[in-house]
Hints:
Layout lengths: L1 E7 L4 E9 L1 E11 L6 E7 L5 E5 L4 H12 L15 E6 L10 E2 L2 H9 L8 H14 L4 E6 L9 H4 L6 H4 L10 H15 L7 E6 L5 E6 L2 E5 L20 H11 L3 H10 L2 H6 L4 H9 L3 H25 L4 E5 H6 L1 H8 L11 H5 L13 E4 L4 H13 L1
Parallel strand pairs: 1-6, 6-8, 9-12, 12-13
Antiparallel strand pairs: 1-2, 2-3, 3-4, 4-5, 7-8, 9-10, 10-11
Amino acid sequence: MKILVINCGSSSIKYQIFKVNGEYELLAKGLVERIGLKNSLIKHTTVGKETVTFEMDLPDHKAAMDSIEPILTNPEYGVLSDISEIDGVGHRVVHGGEVFKGSAIIDEDSLEKIRDLIPFAPLHNPPNIIGIESCQQALPGVANVAVFDTAIHQTMPPKAYMYALPIDYYKKDGIRRYGFHGTSHEYVSVQAAKILGRKLEDIKVITCHLGNGSSITAFDKGKVVDTSMGLTPLEGLLMGTRSGDLDPAIILTIMKKYNLSPAEMDNILNKESGLKGLTGKADMRDVLTLAEGGDYDAKVAVEVFVYRIQKYIGAYTAALSGVDAIVFTAGIGENNPYLRERILSSFEYLGLSVDSKKNDANEITISTEDSKVTALLISTNEELMIARDTYELIK
């Protein structure tokens, strides 16, 4: 059986092809970037071969999806003789609200419910839907499966997901904490248990997905009990261009003073804030370079980034009544030893000490052998989680 995994972002598409035969064998993967801009790029890698890159104009996600099929079936660097070899397609869908508590086979009813959730994820659910509809057209009769970022967080109790607003906003409009990066958090929590040689149901884990978008999740006995993102991916940590936590009155004050529309304020909070707002640079690597050069604003931004993560880890340790493992994953979490050590420096009171040599070498276990809490670096694999859920539902 061959499974195609599609992950449509606001301006990009990631795809992977897996062959399932007891194990999940990755055959090929690719990334379509700069959708909607001139000189869009497609980078395709077939396992065992060199990466090939294509430059073309892709005005929208439909054009981008259409460009993937001829690459997958190309006799030189493709992995399919015909697109009909695909037995199922798994799609990342960002927001499933309270409707979807797990992955689901897509039919007309479920697709309409995903459309209904667009107001909660206006940048992500629309391209997710385009990916689904494109695959339905290209592969009639082949099952499509939606795997939701929010689904794993549905185990949170009301005390974690409720906001202190008039109750009708929840009962009528679904305003509550949902959480995101679910497939990433789930994958690394499962891997953490394997590394510790214990059952996930027997441990307490805090997973830190740190990238351009960042979130932290607390697992107790294999279930999510709290997570840092909220109704949308805007709440929580300081991110590349997103503000994270702030006083809601700030939004009202700025809108009133500068006569901003809701759309303009939304743009500021999601695309002009975070690291970019504090330093002019959205990439943490650029911010660290500025900080090393003595830039005061960049130094403060790094401090804010680290401090917010420390606060969430501390809060979740209290919520869990202790912690067995703290896991780092995603772009910053997997590749920045300096920030990992800075973050963990506050948790010696838990009996956690960083092994600097292991941390600098990006080893899996980065805490000392005598630490009471284990610090881990685990590369996330969201596409594999999507492939697994897809296979389980269609097999």
